[in-house]
Amino acid sequence: MSGLLTFALGLIALVLGAEALVRGASKLALSFGISPLVVGLTVVAFGTSAPETTVSVSAVLSGQTDIAVGNVVGSNIFNVLFILGIAALVIPLSVNAQVIRQEVPMMIGASALLLVFILDQRVSFFESAFLFALFIAYTVYLISQSRRQSATVQAEYASEIKSSAKTAWDGKLSVQIALVIVGLALLILGSRWLVAAAIGLARDLGVSELVIGLTIVAAGTSLPEVAASVSAAIKGERDIAVGNVIGSNIFNILGCVGAAGLASGFEGLAIAPAVVTFDIWVMLAVALACLPIFISGREIARWEGGLFLGYYVAYAGYVILAAQQHDQLQAYSSVMLSFVVPITIVTLIVSSVRPSKS
C-alpha cells in the first residue's frame, strides 16, 4: 500500500471513527438520562479530540515522539487560526460570555503550563500525570457546573446534539454500543495508518517527522473540529463553533499530551528543540491573541477570520522553509518581523477598543 493511500485511508478512518464515537456515545448518554449539556461539554468534545489522542499515543508507542508532540501543538495552532478563520468567513462568530470568562483563560493557562514543562526539552512522566489529572479535574468541574446551568443553555445543547444525530436506526441501545466500539476501533486503526504513512512521507520528502506532525498530521487529525465548527457556523450555532475549538485545544494539551506522556513510561516525552524555541511560543501567542479579539464586541468578525487564516498560511510557510533550510528563510523571517508582527499589534489594539456587545 502506497504512503499517500495509507495516509488517506488513515484520515478517513479517523473522521469516520470520531463521527461514530460521538454519535454512539451521545445517544448512549442520553439513553441513560445524562444531561444533554454534560454530553455536549464532554462526549462531543472528547470525540472531536480523539484523533489527536490516538495518533499521539500511537506515535509514542512507535517511538515517534516528535509526531506525538508536534501533532498537539500543530493542531492547536490549526484549530484557532485555520478553523475559526474559515468559520468566521462563513459568518461572524459570536462568543459566549462563559467561553471568554472561563474556557479561553483555561486554554491560555494550559498552553503556558505546557511551555513551562517542555523548557527542558522533556515532559516527564510525573508532569504528564499532572496534566492528565488536570484533564480529569476539568471534566469533573464541567459536569458539576453543567448541573447549575439554566434551562435555556440546556435546551441549546440538547438541540445541537439531537439535530446532529436524530435518526431512528441509532435509537436502540445495542446500536449505540456498537457505534462506540466501531468508532474506537476505527480511531485506533486510522491512527496506526496515519503515523506509519507520516513517517514514510517525512522520509520521502526529506523533512523531519516533527514538520509532518506540525502540518499534515495536525491538519488531518483536526478534521472533526473543522466539520463540527463549520457546520455549526452554517446552521447559525455560532457560539458552539467557537466553544468546540477552544474546548478541543484544552483537551489536546491536558488529555492528549498527558495520555501520550503516560504511555511513554518513566522515560517521558522527548521534545524537539524547534518546538521549544518556536512552535510552542506560536501556540501560546495564538491563545493569548484570542482574548482581546473575543472580548471586543464578543465576536470574531469576517476580517478577523481572514486575518487568522492568513496567519496560519504564514506559519505553515515558515515551518516548511525552516525544515528545508531554504535560501529565502531569512528574507521570509524579516518580512514576518517587520510586517506581520506590527499588523498583529495594531489589530489587537483596534480589537480591544472596539465597542463590545451588550
Description:
Helix content is 82%, strand content 2%. It is mainly alpha-helical. The protein has a single domain, classed as Up-down Bundle (A middle domain of Talin 1). The strands form two sheets. The chain has a two-stranded antiparallel sheet with strand order 1-4. Strands 2-3 form a two-stranded antiparallel sheet. The termini are far apart. The model has no long low-confidence stretch (mean pLDDT 78).
**Average pLDDT figure:** 78
Give unreliable regions as ranges: none
The total count of helices amounts to: 13
- CATH-scheme architecture: Up-down Bundle
Strand elements, count: 4
The amount of beta strand, in percent, is under 5%
Q: Please identify which CATH superfamily we are dealing with.
A: NCX, central ion-binding region
What multimeric state do the chains show? Answer: single chain
3D shape? globular
- Lateral strand order in the biggest sheet: 1-4
CATH classification, class level = Mainly Alpha
Helix and strand string, N-terminal first? HHHEHEHHHHHHEHEHH
Number of domains: 1
Broad structural category: mainly alpha
How much is the radius of gyration in Å?
20 Å
Profile the largest sheet.
Answer: 2 strands, antiparallel
Helix fraction, binned, reads: over 70%
Q: Could you name the CATH topology?
A: A middle domain of Talin 1
* Distance N to C terminus: 56 Å
